Batch of 2 targets.
Target 1
Amino acid sequence: MLAALIGQDVAAIDTPALVIDLDAMERNVTRMATFARKHQVRLRPHAKMHKSAALARLQMQAGAVGVCVQKTSEAEALAAGGVSDIYISNEVIAPAKLRHVATLAHALNAVGGRLAIAVDSLEGIERLAEAMAESVRSNGTGEGGNGGHGNAPAGSGPAAPGAHDAPASLIDVFIEIDVGQGRCGVSPGEAAATLAQAITAQGALRFAGLQAYHGRAQHLRSIEQRREAIAHAASEVRRTHALIEAAGMPVDLVTGAGTGTFALEAASGIWGELQAGSYLFMDADYAQNARDPAQPAFEHALFVKTQVMSVSASHAVCDAGHKCHAIDSGLPRVHALAGQPALVYANGGDEHGILHPASSKDTLPAGSANALPALGDTVWLIPGHCDPTINLHEHLIGVRGGLERGTVEHVIRVDARGALR
């Protein structure tokens, strides 16, 4: 049992395993929470990254107002783990899934919690309203309360759980606008205003604001590229915001942003909530971005512990292949501890990773040029993309005191592993 690892030295962790450097992670949590407070924006981290109720609660204890997820089943898993303020920042169309959404909204409202969801079509709004109405009938709840915008003044953001007298079936609804991602989202402007009118016409739905997330901008490598992308997004958001408010519908909140650009959204004066998620662990892909000095410096905190299982004259082989780390954003980077040779990870298939000496001798520790690890040595990898890597594991092993001499302090369950619907 993994629980037996608690209190043991990091060397006791079998390989391959997904390990959190708790000290680095907690510094990341503090830096992001401090940034949000300083800039007077709400923080709603994306829990689709870590899929863990325990880590979501940790972020909320540090000041986050709640979390985002992308899937209905992710929301259910985190709610079952005690997370009470959840935003499904994605469209849900299937009637069966919407019944789950409505049931969860009813359950969270009953305990003073909150569920929100994104829409980008009239049909999506109608299907959601139908599911909410069915939930009201099934639960025997009436349409009491104000059923509108609650007590939240315009511009204040959605009310905190329990802060307005809303019907038990109320759900917050954000209109997603496409600000450059080229994925989901209605066109900015009049099309979004039409959807806002449709939402306000439904008694159990509360128009909560705009979802404006520019995913493609997160991984633009230069600061200038990211700045240009978010400036365009901000222009579209302002235009849409003005049109909807001119039609008499307050836009309480604009939510979005990611780890690559959140300082830009915070500085815009239009986004009131940040959805950055990867800052918690920082993967190898994000490390390739030129760092914006307006953002805090985040540390790598998620690692794959692996062991060398074979050595030849030209390379070594470790026991961490593609079944334990995602490669959609590139292969993992080898994290060399003090005195270890600098290595490069190459594709070895499902169960193996090929380790070569770093190509430049200038990057190698003194006295270890072209060195390879020995049979049985531990090698630490930084995953290319943390989100899908975590989805491959049932547990995260939290280590206190560093990767070299640390002690296992926590075994954290990945509650929403495989939550794909």
Target 2
Amino acid sequence: MSASVEVSRLVKSYGALRAVDGVDFDVRSGEVFSFLGPNGAGKTTTVEILEGLRRRTAGDVRVLGLDPWIDLARLRTRIGVTPQDFHFFPKLTPREGIRLYARLFERKVDEDELLALVQLSDKADDRYDTLSGGQHQKMGVALALVNDPELCFLDEPTTGLDPRARRAIWEVIRRLKGEGRTVFLTTHYLEEAQQLSDRISIINLGRIVATGSPDEIIRRFGRPERLRLVGESALADRLASLGLRVTRDDGAVEVELGSKADALQILETIRASGLKWESFSTRSDTLEDVFIRLVGRMENGSLPAEPEPEGGP
């Protein structure tokens, strides 16, 4: 599969500070790729370099085969960008905004089709300053699509939105992928990244911590599946006596499961013990669980960033 974005040994320095420290990743054409990291991790700097807004210190970057700093004039006709906290002229409507952008890009655009894609048909002729926050974000996505981009950069497109509005943006992203476009997504909502992404890169302290599909990252860095029990405190000691790995968590007992058979053994042990219990459930790590653990361990110096690939860029 071809790559829409290729980043090799990317460095961005501000004096002695390396905001981005030898980053490598690629984004495959037609996928939803999420770029995740805590505040100050180097995420925004990297994205601005990809969008041609910031000059890199070292390394190689190709976006749709072009150097974004050198070839921005050619690149901007092929990419769409929705910045975080999108703002627009308050007195213009979504329809007027699309017409304005169409003139700037010298494009013929089906306004109604584009408004329908982002679910703004009923607000097409309402002024921007009367729209809700979610409608602002959807308008930003619509304007990013006026030039029929191959690659869309969506920077925190659902920040501050209510759950219903957030799900509407998710549907837009899925439609973009369905049309064969590549989506480069940044978000602080880990559930969002897990739901939408084909692949993910996590950056922290200027370096890549992990790259892969959500499931791959969870399998690699997550804890084993656990059985969670709510009941008498003596349950923990009884299960620990079996040689099982037991932890107490917020008044409950969690036991790591090496296999499904372990769950049956645990439940039979509890039944035979006569100890009282109220409920049980199984639990697996989410991407958010793994993200918090990876970032925390790296900041504590116990987890190195993923090694750079062998060979030159």
